[in-house]
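In full, the data.
>
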Amino acid sequence: MVKVRAARAAEAEALTGLVMRSKAHWGYDAAFLAACAPELRIRPDEVTARRIVVAEGPQGTVLGLASLEGAGPLATLGLLFVEPSAIGQGVGRILYRDVLRRAVQQGVRRLVIDSDPHAAGFYRAMGAVAAPTGPAAAAATAGAADTADAADTAGAVHSADRSGRLVRFEAAPAPLADWARAWTGGGRAVHVGNVAEFNAQFGDSSLDREQAAAHHYSCLAAFYSPCPSALVLPRAVPAGWTDLVCRQLGWTGVEVYDGLVERGPGLADAVRARPALAARLTGAGEPLVPWGLTRPFGLLTGRPWRSGELRYESKAAAHGLFERILAEGGHPGIVLPAQVRAATRWSAARLLAARARAGKSTVVKSEHGVGGSGTTVVTAGQVRAAGGARAVLRRLPRGPLLVEEFVEGPPDPGAARDLTYDGFVDADGGLHEVGAALMDVTAGAYRGATVGPGVVPDWAEKPVLAFGAAVGRELAASGYRGWFDVDFVADAAGRLAPTETNLRLTGPAIAFMVAARLDALRGAGHLVRIADRVELGARLPEAQLEELCADLARACADLGAVFVPAIPTGAFDPAPWMGVLVAAHSPEALDAAESLVRAGAAAVGAMFDAPASAAL
């Protein structure tokens, strides 16, 4: 276990030797190293002033060092060197993250890094971005120390020369977001993947078998807060998956309890049936975070269960809530589509037929649904082609139906169409705004979401946040405590129509959690995209899945992006797939990373397609 501590003045000579050995690792000639030596020398009287720390191995051996130089909003990564024998072991990554953490504590908001070309890939992979160029950028950086830097986990080292070969990067050290600290009290949390248990509460006939079970989706428990201490999962997950997720998000000491419920929804009950496990999880003083509230979870945690707390999970009840909020005024950018709860299947058919005769499309919804299940858009042409409204309804889930006006979208197919607001109500009834996101919804089914700066268009952000907050206040007043979202669709006139609330964590919530973690770990401003289902070109054994994910992580790092496998267990299904997260500091890098991941996932079948000649 590598630990970081403050360097000591008495170590200055030994640390200078480490720096020179690390510098020499890249094959610089003796003349160049001699020219660098005066600048790379560490003097005893500057160890404290330069805020030098060392990475120490289990036996007390110094493996690397780093310095944070300057003060206030602008500082410099002065030194970052790793002992050649330790290169490739993650020491540089540990030191870099420690520099960012200390920079936040010192009030630094802009960290300048002058990198040797050998080290550029490391800093790009760590989240640093290329610094702007030109006179304005030069003026902004005036006064920053232009000292030398070095070393990464792959063995790259910085150059101390002034030959013009340095590559300038910047990072924006950032604390954990206020809402993220409030979510779990700023500490670690136990994540309980009770997706199936939550869905089973609304087990009407609109939920198909996959949505009623939803054990694949429980893998998202890894991301229920920015920093877990334990994951509690119904199905067994690959050990390599959790190792990679922890590496990508800088987590340590995460315990995994999986394989508790292979079938059925009873995760909390399965934990309660294991008294030692239940005591371990509930007795550590850390909050337990579920996908959503259930009676069994309340019994596990001792949380009082209020049967009406989730009433706005109903799409009809949510529509009524939206109607009441809009009746009070103050939301000019919001419109509400008309909705009728059909008393019978026959009445639903009459309503659908009448709208079809008028040439109108209709949204037919079940009372509850997951990820777009139970929601169908029916056009007038589809009604005619099916032979009438009754024939259409026979193909839809059984159970109560809501018949809703269809909101025509913007004429530009590339315009923002599906948006969402995420927030939560704390134990004291306080509302915390998390933010707005852009969703990917295809044929009424949720496919993923993107969060981050500039994702939501300016015209939409203010009304989304204002109306989402209004819903949150009503939820708090009704007694609800926990995460929630409000989904919207944009109409042709640039207005927003709220469609439902979800009183639980969501796919966009997971993206927000990861963005908060990466901002604190790698610098502010991450864009994060979650893709629910990335098709694989072949059903993969566990070892091959781990190899694929490791390759994708490295390839994305070369782009300055982060790849995190979010749902691995679907890779073992007959029609294989996986859920993924990608993150980057720019839209271009984000799109490139997603394209790379999708192409890489689709191509995995090629490894099993041996050429005919190979069989001879």
About this structure: The first strand starts at residue 3 and ends at 6. The radius of gyration is 27 Å. Residues 321 and 327 are 10 Å apart (CA to CA).
